[in-house]
Amino acid sequence: MFEPKITDTVQGIVKTYINEGDTVIDATIGNGYDTVFLAEQVGINGQVYGFDIQDIAIRSTKEKLDERKLLNRVTLIKDSHECVKDHIKSSVKVAMFNLGYLPSGDKEIITKPESTIKAIKNMLDILEKNGLISIISYYGHEGGMIEKNEVNKYLGELNNKQYDVISIAYENRKMNAPIIYLVREK
Hints:
alpha/beta, globular, seven-stranded mixed sheet
């Protein structure tokens, strides 16, 4: 579970929540690695919805999925993750977020606190009982600390009778090392 790459650590945790046939969301598809991971986990009867606002992210993810013959279980949506309920009418088992910017893309295009908080709220509305939301906050860029603080504040105020919220942070890594948040509906 404790892997050198933070994304591998999160995938190791998320994997334990997904069963074949589940519906899941990659709220920020970026380069497509989590989307591919989710598509592999849900199996041929599952469904992955992937969101991003950048054409380059959609193209890159589509190529990765096509190479692995996984495209038929994924719906890629060019829209903000805050609009999830406009596109998905069913409940979901897992939602994954990577906050910040697309590493290979325009570093001026970043996730923003307002849309991220709205997206988290909307994901909680459609999350199944015992479902999980994972959030990796990369905040070492302009605007990143504001988003991290807003997400941390929002998650800290969730009703503890309905949700468990934990954070995992590297204590001995460079400044602004990413933080993992996990939200489980009870």
